[in-house]
Amino acid sequence: MKEKILAKLVELRNDDLAAMEFAAGRSVEMMKAYCNIAELPEKLIDVGVSLAGMVLDSGMAAEPFSKAKSIKEGDVSITFAGDSNGADEQKMLGCFKVELDRYRQMDW
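Structure (tokenized):
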């Protein structure tokens, strides 16, 4: 599935190949987690391409920790990862809720 999404992304966009590979894999993992299934049906390829494009546009593929906060006091430095990535992913998946809910399975 990831390879098919990546092939369509390469056709449609002129981005860095490594970023597109990451976005394709990330979109597959996000859809699998949302639907709670191990294998995605072929009908979700277009959703995966759109979702991967959103990942690329959001900047998550380039700098996943760009929203990190850090505190420095003397020689000690602490960095906290931003918590908005999870919220961003939920918003992205919400755009495809109608299409993804068909394949969503209950998790017991």
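The mean pLDDT is 84. The longest strand covers residues 69-73.
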